[in-house]
Amino acid sequence: MSFSQSLWQANEALFQSTLQLPFNRELAAGTLSRERFRHYMIQDAHYLVAYGRALAVTAAKSDNAEGVVQFANAANEAVVVERSLHDGFMRDFGITAEQFAATPLTPACQHYTSYLVATAWSAPYPVAVAALLPCFWIYAEVGRDIHARSVAGNPYQAWIDTYASEEFHALVRAVCATVDRLADEAAPATRTAMHAAYRDAARLEWMFWDSAYCLAQWPTAAAELPKK
């Protein structure tokens, strides 16, 4: 068993729980409310900016030129290509640039993005890569599962197709190969830290989808409103 396969196996129950989240079940059924999808899109767009930063920092830490290219290209994908996709969906769902800019990160989004950026800056290169892997891998496998279950005429089909695509899965395989190489060269303590970083990010993936379905906001939001 490769190291990346051991990461997946150790977190299989969490992945199955992610598949069963109401957000993903209703997305496949085409019954997810527009309000919840809009909420998700805005937070995901915020997330991609921070994810791009984490990828860029990780690229700078790479132990070889191939890693610099791999993660710098992934940062470009996150910030430029996928943001343009979000722009199209936001127009389709009536979200203006002003509305997006005025919407703060939710607690789950802020937690996840802060974790990735902090890990990219502070952790050794192998641990930073392990923390970045769940966003690639879990998204791809959730996309594949939803694509297989998606109903005819699903209003979210274009979104589903993006994460089920072979191009996206090729990126996942490349990152898994990098994780396996780094783990093969790492000390036992680093491999243990890689497992912990992957698990933490996988938990935050679960929280991100759950937060979108719950339309989560900061608990103090109401208290911060101006008094009449």
From TrEMBL:
Gene3D superfamilies attached to this UniProt entry: Heme oxygenase-like (1.20.910.10)
Do you know which Pfam families this protein is assigned to?
TENA_THI-4
Biochemical pathway: Cofactor biosynthesis; thiamine diphosphate biosynthesis
Report the GO molecular function annotations.
thiaminase activity
Instruction: Cite the SUPFAM superfamilies for this sequence.
Output: Heme oxygenase-like
**Top-level EC class, please?**
hydrolase
Question: What EC number(s) does the entry state?
Answer: 3.5.99.2
**Which parts of the sequence belong to the Thiaminase-2/PQQC domain?**
22-214
CDD domains under this entry? Answer: TenA_C-like
Alphabetically sorted, this entry's keywords are:
Hydrolase, Thiamine biosynthesis
Catalytic reactions of this protein: thiamine + H2O = 5-(2-hydroxyethyl)-4-methylthiazole + 4-amino-5-hydroxymethyl-2-methylpyrimidine + H(+); 4-amino-5-aminomethyl-2-methylpyrimidine + H2O = 4-amino-5-hydroxymethyl-2-methylpyrimidine + NH4(+)
PANTHER family annotated for this entry? Answer: BIFUNCTIONAL TH2 PROTEIN (PTHR43198), SI:CH1073-67J19.1-RELATED (PTHR43198:SF2)
Which family, according to UniProt?
Belongs to the TenA family.
**What role is this protein assigned?**
Catalyzes an amino-pyrimidine hydrolysis reaction at the C5' of the pyrimidine moiety of thiamine compounds, a reaction that is part of a thiamine salvage pathway.
What name does this protein carry?
Answer: Aminopyrimidine aminohydrolase
Species of origin:
Comamonas terrae
